[in-house]
UniProtKB/TrEMBL annotation, chains A, B:
Record-level Gene Ontology MF annotations: hydrolase activity
Domain HIT: 1-107
Native organism: Piscinibacter sakaiensis
Record's protein name: Diadenosine tetraphosphate Ap4A hydrolase
Source taxon at top rank: Bacteria
Entries under Gene3D superfamilies matching the protein: HIT-like (3.30.428.10)
Record has Manganese as a keyword: no
Keyword annotations from UniProtKB, A to Z: Hydrolase
Histidine triad motif, short sequence motif: residues: 92-96
Keyword hit for Coiled coil: no
Length: 145, 145
C-alpha cells in the first residue's frame, strides 16, 4: 500500500470543496447540490479499508466524523444523519457524512437508492444559503476535535 | 430517548440471525441471500444517532464493527468492505458490514443502488456454504474484541 496512488482521484485532488485538513485527514464539502451539507472525511494517504488503520488512527478518523455530525445536527436539524465508508469505485478510505431531510429527493431511501420525489427547490436554496457559515462551523469544530 | 421503543422493529426483534451479543450490542447476520456474509452490529437500546453515544460506547461499537470486518476480509476475501449507519427507516443505531464482490448483483454500486447484473448463482451458493463456519468465526472474534 503506497502513500499515494497516481491513478486514484482522491490522491490527485481534494474531491470537493476543501474545508479543513491536517497531516492525516482532510474534510471536504461534497459537490452534491441535491444534498446540501454533505461532507466527506478523507484519509490523506491511500488506504482501502477501515481495518487497515490502527486503533489510534481509526479513533482519530471517527472523532472527526462525529465532530462533523454534531455540527450538522446542531445547525441543520436533519431528520437523520447517514454515515458510510463504501469506496467500491474509489478504494481510498473516506467517510460520507450526510444530513438527510424528509423533503430530500431520496428520503427515506439511502442517497444511493432511487429518488422518491423531485428535490424541493425552496428547501435546497434555504440550506445552500447556510453553507458558508456551516463550513466555518465545521472547520472550527474540527480544530477543536 | 427511552431504552426501548415498542414501535421499533430492532427493539422488538433481533433483526436477523443472532450471532453474538453482550449487554450493549448484538451482531446478527442479515437475511439477504443476494449478499452472503452481510452482518449488522446493532445497539441493544434505542438510540438514533452515532453521536448520541459517548466516546467509550462509540469505541466499543467500532471495535465490534472492525472485528467483523477483519473476519470477512480473511475468510471471504471480498473486493471491498462497505460500512454504513443509515437508519432512515429504522432510526435505531445499527452498522451494516457488507462484503462486496465483483460478481455481486450491485458491484461497484452500493447495495442500495441499482442492480448491475443478475446474481451469480454459483458464487452465491459457494459463499452460502461458508456461512455457518463464518458465523462461528465472527462470534469467536467478537468474544475476543
Amino acid at each position: 500500500m503506497s502513500a499515494h496512488d497516481p491513478a486514484c482521484p482522491l490522491c490527485r485532488e481534494p474531491g470537493g470543496l476543501p474545508v479543513w485538513q491536517d497531516a492525516d485527514w482532510r474534510v471536504i464539502r461534497a459537490d452534491e447540490p441535491a444534498f446540501p451539507g454533505f461532507y466527506r472525511v478523507v484519509l490523506q494517504r491511500h488506504v482501502a479499508e477501515w481495518s487497515d488503520l490502527d486503533t489510534a488512527a481509526r479513533q482519530r478518523g471517527m472523532a472527526l466524523v462525529v465532530a462533523v455530525e454534531r455540527v450538522l445536527r446542531e445547525k441543520l436539524q436533519p431528520a437523520k444523519i447517514n454515515l458510510a465508508a463504501l469506496g467500491n469505485l474509489v478504494p481510498h478510505l473516506h467517510w460520507h457524512v450526510v444530513p438527510r431531510f424528509a423533503d430530500d429527493s431520496h428520503f427515506p431511501q439511502p442517497i444511493w437508492g432511487s429518488a422518491q420525489r423531485p428535490p424541493d427547490a425552496a428547501a435546497l436554496a434555504r440550506r445552500a444559503a447556510l453553507l458558508p457559515a456551516l463550513d466555518r462551523a465545521v472547520a472550527q469544530a474540527l480544530d477543536a476535535a
